[in-house]
Amino acid sequence: MLRHRAYRRLFAAQVVALAGTGLATVALGLLAYDIAGADAGAVLGTALAIKMTAYVLIAPAAAAVADRVPRRALLVGADLTRACIAVTLPFVDQVWQVYALVFLLQSASAVFTPAFQAVIPDVLPRERDYTRALSLARLAYDMESLFSPALAAALLCLVSYNWLFAGTVCGFLASAVLVAGTALPAASAASARTGTRRAGVAAGARLFLAVPPLRGLLALDLAVAAAGAMVTVNSIVYVRDLLGLSTGMVPVALGAYGAGSMGAALVLPRLLERVRDRTVMVRGALVMGFVFGALGVVTAAGGGWWRLPALLATWCAFGTACSMVLTPAGRLVRRCAPPPERTAAFAARFSLSHGCWLLTYPLAGWLGAAAGLRAAVVVLGALAVAAGVAAVRLWPAAGAAGPAAQRASTCRTASVKSMRMSTTPSTARARRAATGTMLRLRSDPENVTTPSATETTTGWSGKR
């Protein structure tokens, strides 16, 4: 995987940008506590809700123009914008300033992330390579959750938390340099000509509503958002107020979540070769309900030395369950979206999944501040269980079929739905390519992949 030069540079860009983001996450939590004290959970929950609002509003609009702008220029521009905004964060001393800068910073991220995700399938067209890339991406996020808090804890022994934002700036600048030096494949011609801007924005959302695996994925994203919001928003409240520990334990708690997620991401590539995506993802969501039950016990306990190890184990279990859902999600979108609609599909998933976080972040913060941590655990736990049950119903099991048959069924459904939704003349070649995929599925489902950009543009794969 890392022998591929373009992917290697893109992966390095992702790692350094995430490291900077991780430092900003820790620093933002400490800044909120410095400004608001015991109400830090509410401030941080509101700030993260604003972040999700930016994702939901900006990502679809960015997707409408992403295929009309050179990919490298778009990604580098977003990185430089994020670096410029991060420079101002150490000078914040009012809550409204936190909210304004978070919105601007995350608006730039809403442009960068879906465009970056849509590039990777074109850089790595083979599904096996792409699956490994998804695992590496998950590991990158987990390394950020694990090592960025550890680095933050070390730096906090030497400098104040405001200096952590300097690491954020360096991360975004390094990412821009790496992307600027990478030759990226151009978006497919069909993708660049898929109708009007409004149609491009709606195409991905229609795909998600039409295909059962993607409908189930939305419910699974809600379960992940419930667990992740509890960890992100209330870690500092658990550590400082419930357990009465020092600020240095906050990165340790966040690191436990990252450790659990990283362990699952290391195992999943081989597991997914034998077990269906649905089995892994749905079970991960259902496990979250049990983990919330364990968290309720920790929250209700009046004291005891065991509460800190139990909290770390609970955070680790949340990380494992979330990784079981998130790691295979990218290849599910890739299979269900033909190349002309891939950018719109990734942008739709980015926007819709963060719409779930837009619901859970305020719940975690405001409930924790107004009604206490117990109420937050009960409400978010019930939401995670309901989302897991909904995913089971929205994404029916395909009988006893193995992974190959599941891939065939998923791709066939996506191709049919995509052809019905695509009505502009410029997507006729894409429809012919999808039809060819369906015919090949009937004869050899094990070896079929989604059409490449060349097949989509020409309508012919070069194979008889």
Q: How would you describe this structure to a colleague?
A:
The chain is mainly α and 464 residues long. The protein has one domain: Growth Hormone, Chain: A, CATH 1.20.1250. It is 80% helix and 0% strand. The protein has 18 helices and no strands. The chain has helices at residues 5-36, 40-66, 71-88, 95-123, 127-156, 164-180, 189-192, 197-210, 212-242, 249-271, 277-300, 307-326, 329-336, 342-370, 373-394, 403-421, 428-443, 453-458. Helix 1 packs antiparallel against helix 4 (95-123) and helix 1 (5-36) packs antiparallel against helix 6. The longest helix has 32 residues, at 5-36. It is globular and about 55 Å long. The chain starts with a helix and ends in a 6-residue tail after the last helix.
Task: Give me a quick take on this structure.
The two termini are 30 Å apart. The chain has helices at 5-36, 40-66, 71-88, 95-123, 127-156, 164-180, 189-192, 197-210, 212-242, 249-271, 277-300, 307-326, 329-336, 342-370, 373-394, 403-421, 428-443, 453-458.
Task: Identify the notable features of this structure and list them briefly.
single chain, 464 residues, mainly alpha, Growth Hormone, Chain: A, 80% helix, globular
SSE diagram, text form:
Layout (H helix, E strand, L loop, with lengths): L4 H32 L3 H27 L4 H18 L6 H29 L3 H30 L7 H17 L8 H4 L4 H14 L1 H31 L6 H23 L5 H24 L6 H20 L2 H8 L5 H29 L2 H22 L8 H19 L6 H16 L9 H6 L6
Helix pairs in contact: 1-2, 1-4, 1-5, 1-6, 2-4, 2-8, 2-9, 2-14, 3-4, 3-6, 4-14, 5-10, 8-9, 8-14, 8-16, 9-10, 9-11, 9-12, 9-14, 9-15, 10-12, 11-12, 11-15, 14-15, 16-17
